[in-house]
Amino acid sequence: MSFASDSTENYLETEVLTATPQKLQLMMINGAIRFAYQARQLSEQQEKEEAWERLMRCREIVAQILCSIKNDGSELMQNVAGIYFFLFQELTDLHAKDEYNRLDGVLNVLNEERQTWEELCQQMPEAPERPSESEREITSSDAEEMMGTPEEITNSEAIEQRPPSSYGYDSGADYYPNSGGGISFDA
Question: Considering the entire predicted model, what is its pTM?
């Protein structure tokens, strides 16, 4: 390996390791676009094997983006997942039918996504703050801590013996004055 390729590799590694989440998303979209263009060009040159390899790389990136979408049940997240699911299906189908000219539609969608993420990166150049430990998401183990195990919840004697704070309705400050609550629902 030459010095130039080592330097480029080191630069790219540093770029990825220090990128904000929104910048990483943009980098992935740019990679998908680059591989889609290469697949189309190679297909036009009748280099089918190489075109297929580039198409698969594009599809892998789209699949990775799709898998990274945290579906919170909101309409926005469902729409975003729908876009990437459509792209994944389209990339699969166009290869199966050897219709690489359909890459233009995929590229149009990916270019729109790139523009959106470029604007987001400009408006929000820093990574968003992560919630503090006291503002973290409530998990099922937290619910068991607050309310008891499912067996305890269905046991009427256990319910009668449990202080009101363990039902999950208040912070427990009356029973545990030094606890400080610990859960915030602020966005």
Answer: 0.63
Residue 144 belongs to domain spanning: 138-167
Q: Which amino acid is at 80?
A: V
Instruction: Mark whether 67 and 149 lie in a shared domain.
Output: no
Report the distance separating Cα 92 and Cα 55, nearest Å. Answer: 9
In a domain, 35, yes or no: yes
Q: Which of 12-16, 36-40, 113-117, 149-153 has the lowest mean pLDDT?
A: 149-153
Q: CB within 8 A of 63, min separation 6: which ones? A: 88
pLDDT tens across 131-173, in order?
566 555 555 555 455 445 555 544 544 444 444 443 343 334 4
What secondary structure letter does DSSP report for 126?
Answer: S
Q: In terms of C-beta density within 10 A (0-12 exposed, 13-18 middle, 19 or more buried), how is residue 30 classed?
A: middle
Instruction: Say if residue 117 is in the same domain as residue 142.
Output: no
The answer to whether 186 touches 135, Cβ cutoff 8 Å, is: yes
